[in-house]
Amino acid sequence: MRHYLDFEKPLAELEAKINELRQYSQEDVSIEPELERLREKAVQMREKIFSGLNRWQRTQLARHPDRPYTLDYIRMIFTDWCEIHGDRLYGDDCAIVCGFARIDTLPCAVIGHQKGRDTKEKIRNNFGMPHPEGYHKALRVMKLAEKFSLPIFTFIDTPGAFPGIGAEERGQAAAIAQNLYEMAGLTVPVIATVTGEGGSGGALAIAVANRVLMMEYSVYSVISPEGCAAILWADDTKGPEAAEALKLTAQDIEALGDVIDGVIPEPAGGAHNDPEATAVLVKKALLQHLKELSHLSGEELIQQRFNKFRAMTRMSALPA
Questions:
Q1: What is the pTM of this model?
Q2: DSSP letters along the chain, please?
Q3: Which of 6, 193, 263, 272 is most buried, judging by how many CB atoms fall within 10 Å of its CB?
């Protein structure tokens, strides 16, 4: 059963009516003209709703429970998937999935966050918030990909790294820092795609890439709106106000100029409305950027990545 967000309620009511009429139509009652009229009305309503979304509504879309996750993109885009488990230090972390596959016929490594669908899976995956083991595992696969000269694709969708006591005791900050350091020096192409939430260092730990892309309804920020509101106003219910201040949408980030390299469009109503069509768009973008990077040597890839992230630190001169 499809999940509707609050701002989609008028559309939900209209689509419920369409489904109800469709059942009557199956009983040999000819109401096709009325169905067609309502379908056109639904298309117009969807376009109107989604053309005027504010930043908080886009954040809700980025978190939509029906959005495709990493394993969905792997199923729809890649073949010959072989998952790797464990970090060879402590254990496995289901919040990050890693492995090897093929995109078309080209071998590659794939790494991404996995939130989970039902309650049991969400708990097992810690709601997509990785422990240090997840970052160790991701780095293990990255180094293997580098050894065999394989491009790396990462899919980012996390509220952030898990801040629990156990994770901190096992070196959460050090694990993230090590990934940032090691990814900066990888001699193979790295392409990162923010598919949902790109939350803080938990996202950046697998996003130090030659190309960083964002889905149209994804968000990317140093902190969640609720976390920001809790710090600034001691009131996490002011998330909508914080979202506006953070300017965290794909369109906001693209306007900065140096942070991302493109926005991948989504079907009307978001990726969850048509995952297969979304996957086609994502695959096209991945292959395009991989082709552009394929002529660079290992040293050139490192330098290009360094220049990209160095450019983000530029600041306008402060007034006297």
A1: 0.89
A2: -----GGGHHHHHHHHHHHHHHHHHTTT---HHHHHHHHHHHHHHHHHHHTT--HHHHHHHHT-TTS--HHHHHHHH-EEEEEE---SSS---TTEEEEEEEETTEEEEEEEE---SSHHHHHHTGGG---HHHHHHHHHHHHHHHHTT--EEEEEEES-S---HHHHHTTHHHHHHHHHHHHHT-SS-EEEEEEEEEEHHHHHTT---SEEEEETT-EEESS-HHHHHHHHHS-GGGHHHHHHHHT-BHHHHHHHSSS-SEEE---TT-GGG-HHHHHHHHHHHHHHHHHHHTTS-HHHHHHHHHHHHHHTT--PPPP-
A3: 193
